[in-house]
Fold DUF3515 domain-containing protein.
Amino acid sequence: MDAAPNATDPGCAEVMVRLPDKLEGLDLRETNAQAAAAWGSPASVLLTCGLPAQPPTSLPCLPVGTVEWIIDDSKPAFTTATTHGRKPVTQVVINSTQTGGQAFLADLETAIAASPTDQDVAACK
């Protein structure tokens, strides 16, 4: 995994220290990139914090608890969920062989909610 451009953002540190040890039964594993995490063996869920601000999109926006996610399931091999209205931006990639994508996002809510909201971004519609 490669670190995101803004991986050193203090908001990423807040997210990383709150990540769960398990996601729907998948164990957290070590990665070699700052502000990145993976669960499962082989890794089935990847998280990267510190992405650049995302442009407006027509992709669906899904609120999960207090966190809003832009969902891109256009690739058959995986689903990508990117935070909406958070600084820094965090992205989760879920292998399509895994079920319970929304449950993974719910498990991450506490960690992601530690990152500040971006007041310049409108809420999901």
